[in-house]
Structure formats: C-alpha cells, structure tokens
Amino acid sequence: MPIEIINGNNLDHIILGNGESSLTVYYYGANITSWKYKGFERLFTSSKANLSGPKAIRGGIPIVFPQFGPEALHGYKALPQHGFARLVCWEFQGVKCDSVEKTEISFLLKNTMLIPEAQQSIWNHDFKLIYTITLQANTLKTNLEVHNTGASDFTFTTLLHTYLKVDNVEKLAIKGLSGYKFKEFSHDYTESRNEITIAKETDRVYQNAATSAITLDNTVAGKSLVLTKSPEFKDVVVWNPWVDNAKKMADFGDEEYMEMVCVEAGALEPIVLAPGKAWEAHQVLVAL
Ligand code: TA6
Fold first, then answer.
1. For residues 227 and 283, is the Cβ–Cβ distance under 8 A?
2. Which of 82, 161, 191, 282 is catalytic?
3. Pocket test for ligand 1, best of 31, 86, 161, 164 (most atoms within 8 A of CB)
4. Ranges under pLDDT 50 in the chain
C-alpha cells in the first residue's frame, strides 16, 4: 500500500495506507496520531497536541518507556512522567513488508540517540527499542521490543498509552475487565461491572488483567473496537481526565474529554532485563 514520507524538520511523519485503511505516525515518539478504517478515525489526537515537542504528543499511541507514571522506578531518580521514549525522535528503520493488503514498518530508538544527558544520567543503560507497526485490513498491530545491549541488568515498565476516539464518552461501554482488581486514586477495588461506563474522572490501573480482549461498544458511529494484547502486557489502564483536568491541560481542548478514552495495555510491574536479553509485547486494535 502507498507509503508517503513527509519531512518537515522535526515534524517528520509517515502516512501509509490504501483506500480502506490509513495511518499517520510521527518520528517524534514514534507516535501514531491517526488510524482510519473505512473513512472513520479510530484514534483521538487533541486539536491542541504538540506534534514536535517538547511535550509528548497528546493523542494517538504514545510509547511509555522506561517508566510508567511519575514515580521513579526502584533505584532510579524520577524520569519525566511516563519516561523519555515519547519525547525524542526515533529513527525510521524502513518497510518490513508491503503488499496491497498489509504494510509493516518499524522505528528504532537507542540510548545513543538524542536522549538529553539529564535523562541518560538518571537511567543510564544501553538499550535498543524496535517498534513495529502493522496495518492490515481492519487491524492495527503495534509491537514493542526492548533489548538490553549493555553489560548490566536494567529495570523498566512500559505501556502503549492508546487514545481511542469516541463520539460521546458517556455512551461508551467497555467490556472484558469484569472481575479484575484495579487501583484508582490510591484505593483498591474489584471490577464488578460487565460493562464499564464513564461519567467522571477515571484513572484505573487493572493489574494482571489477563483478559486477551477488551471490547469498546459505541465508539464512533455506533461502531465497536476490540483491543487484544499479548500476555506480556499484563496490565490495563483506563483513563479519562474529565472536565476539570481537561481545562488544566494546555495541549487538550476543554471539551475534548467527551470524545476520547484511553485504554492502555502495559507492563507496570518492574521488569528486570539481563544483558543481551530482549522482551517484547504487542497489542492489536480491531475496528469493527
Ligand atoms: O495513563 C493514565 C495517566 O497515567 C494518568 O494518570 C494521566 O497522568 C495520563 O496518564 C496522562 O499523562 P501525561 O503525562 O501524558 O499527561
């Protein structure tokens, strides 16, 4: 399928797709900002998003690495919230495969690439990330490989901070998390609902949510979307900032909380990776 590389200094991005599905990904953060299927945009990117830094792109699929959240990993000083991977330009590695029905491209990030010294001094390890994006029919697969290229163990957490587009978040139903424990605002709960609805600020970390499929009903134009994840992405975060937080974010419209929800596959228990070893995980979004 057609691939268009658009170079605009640090606004470099790639548009790929055929008539049925298309995708836009920025070199900055290897951040996918758009994924359309049959003319419907299925990801949310804020109209106020910074597409060339210094903040992370507010939308699409930001890559969280090597740390989720503001708290420093054990033994490390605090990195920027959600780490540095979404705050630097990755290297486009090229097209892994391209046919009428399927296109696969990949991006690379290594410790030697443009990570400000301050961040390197805080998390000073030799690593390589390879992010593979596969667009095929009504699916978008994103696979993250983490390689320890150094001589000592390192510890990380990681997550795909996926912003999904909805027409009206209050009409959305999220299925597949029933029975799982979750933390929200420092309290522990067990999800009792088969269908989760959102009508207030929501910031839930479902730990060990082994579910392989999370279904969102009534996203755009009454359509459903399914997020599946590999077992390595053990955890799921569901986030909507709601009105007060929306107003506090300069890169987010005051009303935009009504047209998005984050459903985020991640590995939030610290992972220790030995020298020469690799870890990988993927998610697949299916547009129904
Ligand atoms: O994934 C949920 C979350 O951790 C929320 O607590 C909120 O902070 C959100 O990420 C956005 O974080 P960001 O650093 O992108 O503004």
1. yes
2. 161
3. 161
4. none
